[in-house]
Structure formats: structure tokens, C-alpha cells
Amino acid sequence: MAAARRQFGELGYERTSIRGLASEAGIDPALVMQLFGNKEQLFSTAATSGIDLQALTSATADNLAEAAAAHLFADFEDPERRTAAEALLRSCLTHPAAAAALREQVMAPAQSAVAATIGGDDSELRAAVLNACTLGVTIARYLLRDPVLADADRQDLERVLRPALEAVIAANSRS
Amino acid sequence: MAAARRQFGELGYERTSIRGLASEAGIDPALVMQLFGNKEQLFSTAATSGIDLQALTSATADNLAEAAAAHLFADFEDPERRTAAEALLRSCLTHPAAAAALREQVMAPAQSAVAATIGGDDSELRAAVLNACTLGVTIARYLLRDPVLADADRQDLERVLRPALEAVIAANSRS
DNA sequence: TCTTTCGGTCAACGCGTGTAGAGTGAAGCT
DNA sequence: AGCTTCACTCTACACGCGTTGACCGAAAGA
Predict the structure, then answer these.
(1) Which of A20, A96, A112, B140 has the maximal Cβ count within 10 Å?
(2) Residue B55: what are its φ and ψ, rounded to 5°?
(3) Is residue B55 domain-resident?
(4) Domain span at B106
(5) Into how many domains does chain A fold?
(6) Of all nucleotides in the shown strands, which has a C1' nearest the CA of A42?
């Protein structure tokens, strides 16, 4: 199961084979079938478990930008939680179920939580933009491994990113 | 060739088969081999052609945020240019060559151009964050099709996003 | 007109995949 | 001890894939 998450996270859904994953785990491929029924089901249980949006929902308007930035790191700096999040993100552009899961189980709840916190005009759109920006930084840093972002200190990155998030939060009037 | 870009853009590298793409184009799969040699080569010529960073490199510090936002739309609102960009982006998380191409042929040049324009402390890091944010919005809107972002007006989206980009550009002092 | 070349097609190979079903050995119950 | 159940493995199937090399008809050159 840990092997499943690791391979899904590293290779994506399509390139991950049940045979390869089973051999990494030291078990028989057929056992994987017996336990999870399906490659699809294995993926969805591997990728959608361990998603935790509490940090976002419990934030106030004051510390929202900080919470969003911290949330970005919490999912990926901790090796335990990283694999599940990486599995979901890695396949979200090529696997329809992963895209749907990310949209409906991560982005939509996060957006409504953020929208409720910031309020004002366009709160939904601004929440969506805020999440899209953190998504972009996450992808570029941890998945795409853009050299500048991947090698940056967490503090430096947070210091640069936070003004952007705060700008989205603060611009709550139709100009 | 148009069919190749379309399928790579819609399905990603792994799910796109030469057979399927050839039948959409009404030709024989073997002809594709003969013309491009390889699935890999076909992909790289389909995905890396038509990348145009001129809008970014020729921007000044004053209109950089505007140029970056406009650049985001230019690649995806125009159906002609969209397919190539979409093909590259769709596979950038699962196909190593696509990731490398995106990093080295798109993000790195864009970052150095932006960094040169904004200058100041951490210019490289801030350029990377700026590009990551536009990348995130692009992915969420056009690839992931997040409902809020996908249905938003171009003007509304630009109005919300621009303050964020400007904040990254403007925060050019170590606090 | 005969020959060569060339754009294009056909059938096929070898491989890796997800998946199914029969089989096996140990453990637990009566 | 005998039977049942369970966790697990072995073998095999059917399929779709990228790729190849032989083949074919038409255009061009002698």
C-alpha cells in the first residue's frame, strides 16, 4: 500500500503497473487484485485517503494567507502525508478520476471554505485564484521540480508567496 | 499532426495511441511512424513547437503583470496555439520529457526574462513564484477545468489575478 | 515503354498490461 | 483426526500497444 502510493506518486497512474508495485511490496500481483478489486479502486483509495483541509477551514481572515501557505508545506514536507497528495496531483491532468477527485474533494471544499472566510465581492473567484496559485507553486516545486522553487528555503518561498495571497484576499472591491 | 496535438492535449502522452490518432487523421498508423520515427519524437515536435515567450521578454516592469496575465490567455484562448500548449502541459507531470521541456524551454527562459525585468532582491525566486502562479491558474482553468475558474470571464479573472502578480513583483525588499 | 522511385497500406511480431480462476499450504474449529 | 476456511500464489488469457518489413499503385526519368 505504501508502495502503491509511492509508485502512483512518482510515475502517475498510467505508468504504474500492478506487477511493478506488487514486486516492490514483495507480494503477488494477484493479491493486489484480491485486496483492492481493481487498479482504479486501488488508486482512489491510495490517492484520496489522508486529505486534510482542516487547516484551511479553521483559519480566520487574518491568518488565511499564512494558513494557506502552511497548508501547502504541510502536505508535502511530511513524508507520511506527501505520498498520498503526490499520487493525486501527479495524475490529475491525465486520469479523469484523479481530476474529478481533486476538483470535488479538494479544490471545491477548499474554495468554499476560503470564500466564506474572505467574503466580499467575487469571494468565490478570489478563493479559486488563491487555491490555483498555491496549486501552481506546489506543482512547480514538488512535482515539476523547477530548480529555483525546489531548492528554495521554505521561509524564503513563504515570504515571497504570502504577499500574493494576501493581495488576492484583500482586493475585495470591484474596481 | 493537428490530430496528434489534439489527442496529446486531451488525453496526455500515455493514453494517446498512435492507432487512435492516425484513425482520427484518416491515415495509416505506419505512416505516422514513417513521418516522425517515434511516438516520442512525434510528441516532442507536436508539443514544443509554437512556444512564444516574446510577450514576456519584451515587457517592462510597469506592464509585466499585465503582460503575464495576457500571455496566459494568449496561449489558451486562441484555438490555434492552444493545442500545442495543452499537449505539453497535460503530460508535464507524467512524462519525463514533457517535464524537462516545460522546465527548460518554457519556465527557465520565462523566469530569467521576468527576473531581469523586475530586478531587486530574490528576483529569481520571485520570478519563479510569479510563473508558478500563472501556471497554477492556467492548469486549474484550462486543464483541470475547475468550475469557478473555467466559467469566469477573462476580464474578471485578470482583475483578480493581477494584484497577486503585482504583489510578487513589488515586494522587492527583504522584510 | 520500361524502369525506378516514392507515398502510402497491410499484416504481423513481440511485449507488457489488467484480470480471472484454479490450486496450495497452513491455521482454526469440531 | 478430519474438515473447512482463509491468505496467498501460479498459470494463463485476451487485449492493446509501438514498431517493423514486405508489399502496392502511381508518378517521374530514360
Answers:
(1) B140
(2) -60, -35
(3) yes
(4) 51-170
(5) 2
(6) C18
Give the mutation candidate from B8, B142, B161, B162 for the A interface (greatest A CB count, under 10 A).
B161
Q: Taking 80 as the threshold, does the pLDDT of residue A4 lie above it? A: yes
Protein-to-nucleotide distance from the CA of B105 to the C1' of C14, whole angstroms: 36
Query: Quick check: B30 CB within 7 A of strand C?
Result: yes
B87-143 pLDDT tens trace: 999 999 999 999 999 999 999 999 999 999 998 889 999 999 999 999 999 999 999
Q: Is the CB of A162 under 7 A from strand C?
A: no
User: Residues 6 or more apart from B166 whose CB is under 8 A from it?
Assistant: A167, B65
Cβ separation of A136 and B141 shorter than 8 Å? Answer: no
A-chain residues within 8 Å CB-CB of B136? 132-140
Residues 89-118 of B with CB under 8 A from A: 89-94, 99, 102-103, 107-108, 111
- Same domain assignment for residues B41 and B117: no
Do A41 and A93 share a domain, yes or no? no
CB distance A14–B15 less than 8 Å? yes
Task: Provide the residue type at A35 as one letter.
Answer: L
Q: Could you tell me the three cell numbers for A49?
A: 485517503
pLDDT of residue B175: 44
Strand D reaches within 7 A of the B16 CB: yes
- On whether the CB atoms of residues B162 and B69 are closer than 8 A, the answer is yes
CA distances, A130 to each of A8, A26, A66, B66 (Å): 27, 42, 12, 18
Assess contact for A124 and A113: CB atoms under 8 A: no
> Residue B172 pLDDT more than 70?
no
For strand C, is any atom closer than 7 Å to the CB of A19? yes
Task: Return the CATH number at B30.
Answer: 1.10.10.60
The string of pLDDT tens digits covering residues A22-34 is 999 999 999 999 9
**pLDDT band at residue A175 using 50, 70 and 90 as cut-offs:** very low
Who's near B77: CB < 8 A, 6+ residues apart?
Answer: B154
pLDDT tens-digit series, residues A132-164: 999 999 999 999 999 999 999 999 999 999 999
- Show which of B47, B67, B83 is a domain's final residue: B47
